[in-house]
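Hi all, long-time lurker, first post. I run a small reading group and we've been trying to get comfortable going from sequence to structure in the token notation. Rather than ask abstract questions, I figured I'd post a concrete chain and ask someone more experienced to write out its structure so we can walk through it together at our next meeting. Sequence below, copied exactly:
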Amino acid sequence: MRRTTPVRLHAPAPHARAPSALSALLVLIAACGRAAPARVDSAAPRPASEATTPASPTSAAAAGPATCADTSEARALDCARGRARRAGDTLVLDVAGGRAPVRLADNLADGEQYARYRFAGTALGGRYYVIDGTGYEWIWTELVDAESGQRASLTGRPVPSPDGAHLAAAARDLGIAEGATRLEIWRVQPGKPALELQLQPFDQVDTANGWGPGDPTWRGPDTLVVPRFFPDHTRPDGEVAGDTALVVFDGKAWSLVARDRPPR
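-- Answer (accepted) --
Happy to help. Here is the structure in token form:
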């Protein structure tokens, strides 16, 4: 600790007026060259601009507007702001209007009935609950409408369009016969979304042909950009990255614009 030189106080001259206690204190402060710290009442409320804000789950901005997700279910549940919770082996999802909550219970029995649910986040500002489902030999995404409780099974995580009018989903498995290889586009509407496009560009029986979609991204509200992967059994992962396809909406229907083969 730094030591300070004691301040020497001289006695007042004869017939001089003795300094008051306040004057002596001011002299001491000036000699030390520092001001007395202001008192801070710890019980006083903090300004709103300084209030502590809890950390929120990672927002997947690339996945579209108002999407909240996390790889940890405990953190992903924070996306629902108390409207979703786990009770043992069951996910409980609150529904608007006082309706009975949606309950998704794990079934860990061996066989086709096996099902395991994990809360993954929310989409479109909490309009949908996003649930990762794992079956006996497949995976999917369960989308639950938070207003009605209606459900839709998507092939993968939803990717909202910039205007929030559509959701894209993709899955790729160019090797396992039970795996899904699909590209979907869903229209957002009251209740569960409506499927507008589903492509299955790979035949698990004829594994030498076809292709599988990578992670789709939106280029505006009516154009979906889809990386394509092609089977290549000379590689350890059984596939090779190819070209990029566009799925375009012309006002009436969605159409695929893509090459037949990967570029050479």
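A couple of things your group might point at:
The CA atoms of residues 54 and 78 lie 10 Å apart.
The first helix runs from residue 21 to 32.
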